[in-house]
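Dear H.,

Thanks for agreeing to be a second pair of eyes. The structure we're designing against is below in token form, covering all 247 positions.
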């Protein structure tokens, strides 16, 4: 009898020990899953988790370095602003410094400002029923064709409407800075002209992508008919200037 009781006690002890091992194993698995989940979350958040290798040599502390200046060394912004800006001259701009648009159209006879800062765009209204929307876009790198502002501008039109083919676009110019009512350099743009059948508003759109600067301008016009559109286009060409970067 004694030997049987001893055997049963020994078996219960083994079972208890095995249960403890199982609990520790399950806890370890859960811990691994938790660490893996945190690592995946960090990667998805754009971070990385570094686990040092004990056998790797200790790296020396990095020497502090100054941040890269935003102004391109040797870049003469004033000289660039004083000359015409054809498509081929886009690379003379400083990298990553956006252009702007003036609000000179609000000073033109018959025009007044409408809604402003609507998704970054400004509206101008004319007494004859014409409407102009003007917008500057930044961070345009994904659309840019490096070193080719013409192709980049065509890509911008196609991004806005895939049905717009490069053959639909013509070349035009806008003011490149300068004071209103005074001679100024010109900047090349691509123009999309809409048809004007009877009873349909006449439209036109101007755009220029500055691939090196990483920004673009887009101006759309809508008028009651072809005659009022022609007058509005003249006002836009004279008053709504593309402002060169100052650095």
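And this is the sequence the design step returned. I haven't edited it by hand at all.
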């Amino acid at each position: 009898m004694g030997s049987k009781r001893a055997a049963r006690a020994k078996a219960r002890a083994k079972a208890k020990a095995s249960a403890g091992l199982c609990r520790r194993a399950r806890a370890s698995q859960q811990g691994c899953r938790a660490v893996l989940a945190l690592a995946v979350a960090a990667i998805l958040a754009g971070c990385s988790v570094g686990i040092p290798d004990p056998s790797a040599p200790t790296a020396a502390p990095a020497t502090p370095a100054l941040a890269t200046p935003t102004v391109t060394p040797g870049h003469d912004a004033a000289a660039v602003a004083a000359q015409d800006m054809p498509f081929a001259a886009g690379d003379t701009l400083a990298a990553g410094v956006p252009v702007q648009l003036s609000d000179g159209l609000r000073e033109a006879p018959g025009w007044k400002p409408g809604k402003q800062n609507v998704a970054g765009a400004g509206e101008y209204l004319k007494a004859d029923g014409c409407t102009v929307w003007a917008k500057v876009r930044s961070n345009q790198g994904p659309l840019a064709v490096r070193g080719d502002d013409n192709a980049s501008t065509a890509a911008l039109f196609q991004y806005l409407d895939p049905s717009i083919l490069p053959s639909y676009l013509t070349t035009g110019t806008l003011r490149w800075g300068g004071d209103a009512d005074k001679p100024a350099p010109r900047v090349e743009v691509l123009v999309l002209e809409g048809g004007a059948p009877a009873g349909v508003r006449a439209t036109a759109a101007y755009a220029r992508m500055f691939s090196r600067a990483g920004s673009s301008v887009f101006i759309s016009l809508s008028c009651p008919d072809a005659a009022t559109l022609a007058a509005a286009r003249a006002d836009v060409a004279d008053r709504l200037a593309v402002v060169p970067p100052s650095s």
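Two observations from my side: The chain has four helices and nine strands. The longest helix spans residues 2-44.

Warmly,
E.
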